[in-house]
């Protein structure tokens, strides 16, 4: 029963989120089970010259997954400014402070701050380009979704004339139909 509920929730995720989550879980399991070495997954600056890879060369990061996750957290937190958060039951704050709380926690654990700062910088750049700049006077959308992604992932429009079968209607009422009053 719990498996079915978990599967249902998993399938309710947006396609890209589901793919990213699946890739993270599979990659983590593969590394933990020694099927894949983490060194096979790292960013290799030498390949930039040989195979024209870009992004992380300028910030000297070898593993970009954490920075990507912080970027997603940053964008979510800026888009949900009024959500109240609780960190280990000790600290209450609004969502926009979440990336900074996570940065502070990373520092307490002895991690470097550069990965978090890179993620926040990229997240802020994306948030500004996607949410702030288009709303400014004379602003426009800088980032455009490629048509192939729209075709693959956009939901198909629902049929406005669709009526579910009677057994799917809650309460046994004829929702959406006129009542016969005598």
Automatic annotation (TrEMBL):
Highest taxon, organism lineage: Eukaryota
- The segments labelled Disordered in the record are 160-182
Q: Which residues form a coiled coil?
A: none
Provide this UniProt record's keywords sorted from A to Z.
Answer: Endoplasmic reticulum, Membrane, Transmembrane, Transmembrane helix
The subcellular localization recorded is:
Endoplasmic reticulum membrane
Q: What's one GO-annotated cellular component?
A: endoplasmic reticulum membrane
**TM annotation in the entry:** 20-43, 55-77, 97-118
Q: What's its membrane topology?
A: Multi-pass membrane protein
Provide an example Pfam family for this protein. Answer: DER1
Q: What is its main location?
A: endoplasmic reticulum
Could you provide one GO biological process annotation from this protein's UniProt record? response to stress
Q: Which InterPro entries match?
A: DER1, Rhomboid-like_sf
Role summary: May be involved in the degradation of misfolded endoplasmic reticulum (ER) luminal proteins.
Q: Which family does it belong to?
A: Belongs to the derlin family.
PANTHER family cross-referenced by the UniProt entry: DER1-LIKE PROTEIN, DERLIN (PTHR11009)
Name of the protein in question: Derlin
């Amino acid at each position: 029963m719990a498996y079915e509920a978990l599967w249902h929730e998993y399938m309710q995720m947006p396609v890209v989120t589901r793919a990213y989550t699946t890739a993270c879980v599979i990659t983590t399991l593969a590394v933990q089970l020694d099927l894949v070495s983490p060194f096979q997954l790292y960013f290799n600056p030498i390949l930039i010259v040989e195979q024209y890879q870009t992004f992380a060369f300028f910030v000297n990061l070898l593993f970009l997954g954490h920075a990507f996750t912080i970027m997603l957290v940053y964008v979510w937190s800026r888009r949900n400014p009024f959500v109240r958060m609780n960190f280990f039951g000790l600290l209450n704050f609004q969502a926009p402070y979440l990336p900074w709380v996570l940065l502070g926690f990373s520092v307490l654990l002895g991690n470097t701050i550069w990965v978090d700062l890179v993620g926040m910088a990229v997240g802020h750049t994306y948030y500004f380009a996607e949410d702030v700049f288009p709303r400014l006077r004379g602003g426009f959308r800088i980032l455009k979704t490629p048509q192939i992604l729209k075709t693959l992932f956009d939901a198909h429009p629902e049929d406005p004339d669709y009526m579910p079968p009677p057994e799917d209607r809650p309460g046994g009422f004829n929702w959406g139909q006129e009542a016969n009053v005598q």
